[in-house]
Amino acid sequence: MDGQVNVSYVNSTEHIVAWHKHNIQTDYWTCLKGSFKVGMATEEDGCEFVYLSDKNPRVIEMKPGVYHGYKAIEPGSILLYYLTEKYNPEDEIRASVGHFGEEWTTENK
Predict the structure, then answer these.
(1) 40-62 pLDDT per residue, tens
(2) Is the peptide bond before 19 cis (omega within 30 degrees of 0)?
(3) Considering only CA atoms, which of 94, 76, 88 is closest in space to residue 17?
(4) DSSP state of 89
(5) Whole-angstrom Cα distance, residue 73 to residue 41?
(6) Which of 4, 39, 41, 108 is disulfide-compatible with 67, CB 3.0–4.6 A?
(7) Is residue 18 part of a domain?
(8) Cα(93)–Cα(97) distance, rounded to whole angstroms?
(9) Which strands sit side by side in the sheet containing 60-62, from one edge to the other?
(10) 106 pLDDT band (50/70/90 cuts)?
(11) How far apart are CA 91 and CA 13, in angstroms?
(12) Structural domain contains residue 74
């Protein structure tokens, strides 16, 4: 396998893990348990959000050049992600939370 598989167990619904992008690597994310609010952004188009949940299984692709990040919506959520390349800190470009004017809060329904 050229890339690597990672798993993140997230107990906090307050912590935001964002933003970074890659110039080479593509990420594929899926939610194994719970749910996540996932942000994807570019300098040109701004930010959009999608949701991952174990109740509606799917995989989302984070292409090179797209900033991405997440916030767990439920305590104990688990995110599985496949990276097409092994971790390379030189292929990770960061931006701070709020850089895109985004709103990470979620409504209770």
Answers:
(1) 999 999 999 999 999 999 999 99
(2) yes
(3) 94
(4) G
(5) 20
(6) 41
(7) yes
(8) 13
(9) 4-10, 77-83, 27-33, 60-62
(10) confident
(11) 28
(12) yes
